[in-house]
Structures are given as C-alpha cells and as structure tokens.
Write a structure and sequence with these properties.
Belongs to the glycosyltransferase 2 family. The protein is built from twelve helices and ten strands. It is an alpha/beta fold and 367 residues long. It has a domain of 198 residues: Spore Coat Polysaccharide Biosynthesis Protein SpsA, Chain A.
Amino acid sequence: MATILLGIFILISLIILGFYFAFFSFVNEKPSAPSNLNSPVSVIVCAKNEAENLKTFLPSILEQDYPDFEVIIINDASMDDTLEVIEDFQALDGRVKSVNVQNNEAFWANKKYALTLGIKKAKNPYLIFTDADCAPQSKNWIRYMSGQFQGKKSIVLGYGGYFKDTRSFLNKLVRFETLLTAIQYFSYAKLGNPYMGVGRNLAYTSQQFYAQKGFANHLHLRSGDDDLFVNEAATKENTALCYHPEASTRSIPKKNFKTWLHQKRRHVSVAGHYKRKDKFLLTLFYSARFFFWILFFLLLVLQFHWQITLIVAAVVLITQAIIYTKAAKQFEETDVVWFFPFLEVILIFTQFSIFIANSISKPKHWK
C-alpha cells in the first residue's frame, strides 16, 4: 500500500510540475510599453452603497493622464448617499456621467442588469471596468489598458490586486490567492485559452458586448459579470493581456475570514458554469495540490522512502517558488512569497471546505 501511495504521490507531483512549467510562458515575458493610440474610452464603475469609497477612489480615475475619456458611475439602488456623491462629482467634472438604477422585481439586486444600463449609456466604443473601491496604481492606467485594443483585440485582461496590510495574516492570504489566480488566467490566456478576468480591472469593446448579447446567457446568475463573460466571449485571437505594474488596480480586501469566505463561495459557485475544459483544468490543478499535501504528510508519517518523498516535494516547491517569485515581482506582491507553502496549505483546504459548503447551500450574491 505504501508503494502505491508513493507512486500516486510522484504522479501527482508530475501533474503539478506540468502546470507550473506551463506558467513559465507568462512569468518570463516582460510587459509591453503603453500605446499612444489615445482612442476615446468610457470607464464604467458600478457602485452599490459606495458613497465613501467613491469619495476616496474616484479622484484617482479622474486624474488619469489620458486625453479623451468619460466615467460612467452606476448607482445600483444604493441605500446610502452614493447618488448624492455622484451628483457632486458631476457638478465638478463634466466627464462624470451617472446612471441611477432602481430595483425592480425582475432584476432585483442584479449587477449585470446595472452594468448593462451603464454600457448603454457609454458614448465611446472602448470600455474599461473597475469597482468603486478600486484605485488605479498610476496615472497611465487608462493608457495601458486602452492601448491593447489593436488589430482584432476586443477584450483586455488586467490585474486587480488588493491594498497591503503588513499586520494582517488574512491580507497575505487574500493577496496570495489573488496572485495565484492571476498567474493562472494570464498563463492560460498566453497559451491561447483565456478563461476568466476580474471586474476590478477588465476592458472590452461595446461591439464585443453586443455581439455576445451582453450577459444574456447567464443573466439568471447573480455573479459572473466578469469571469463568465470572458469565459464565453474570449478567444486566442480577440484577447490581449495587460499586466504592467502601472496598469494594475488595487482595492480594499475583506477584513475578516467570514466575509472573505462568503466572497470566495460566490466565485467558486460561478466557476461551475465555465466551459467543460476549463472546469477540468481547474479541478485537476486544485485536486492535485490538495492530494499532494495529503500524501506528503502521510508518507512522512509512514516513513516509507521518506528521502524520495522529500526530494520530490523539494522539486515541486522550488519550481513553485521560482514561478511565484517572478510573478510577485511583476505584480509587486513579493512579501507573500516567503510564506507560500503555509499559505498554499491553508488556501487549498479552505477551498476544499468551500466546495463542500456550496454543495450543501448556495451563497448569496451582489450586495
């Protein structure tokens, strides 16, 4: 039995190495310089009860070094002063446009409905999306993102990170999970299989949106306005990547495990609607890492060829460390790399518990 377990452990390790060697195609490439196309752009922000965040972060969008853009702020049936804050910004800056969404029985608390109204309001063909609690990390954010709309490219995947809190362990876990997710979706897209993007930093053309009939195929799902849209519409030919540090955004992470777990449950539930090949690859990747750690500890306890077990594990961990270090430098998340084995174990078993929880009950969606 121990021999069989060791053989399975080695096979799983080879599967993991296969994934991480594939990730080299992305982490070894340097980001491109910004374009000087300067095409008219509409930045779209959906806000639900985000009055304070708009006051804090909207100026960083309005201060962008770009000659021709408007900002569409969608008030999605907020209960706070969001609408009043938007109107105050409108009075100060003519580039700010508002869409006021009222709840209705058919689309109650549906972010996709609100986004659709915002997209219809936009006057420009190039759309960049972010959240109300997000801040571009440079004044060239729009320039980098919009500059990717060249040739047949109609979808641009960007990096949406989180603000750092060096005193918080949860903050490191959240940012490590975000880093790992970015490595995956950028790498898969680089290899010709774009499968998701994040609404904190995403762009596509209005033509692509209407050609896809918007969110019609998954409008009944409350989440997935970003990743499900990309999973359905993105191809090797129409998708561009934008991962320069100046093209990233950062937002406020969850402050406690309960709210973070609820957020992750929503994301996992949406992933179940991805294309079959994408679900297979994601399931294989996470399952392999889960059983890697289970078998690693089990073989050490059994002390069966423990030297081989340690050597195989060392090869896997060193390969992961190289990938994480390169990606972390790219996305300015280097402080999480030092803890990655510990963070990975916690993340894997957390995800396993989320799968179990989602199989029992469905999580709630959009605020």
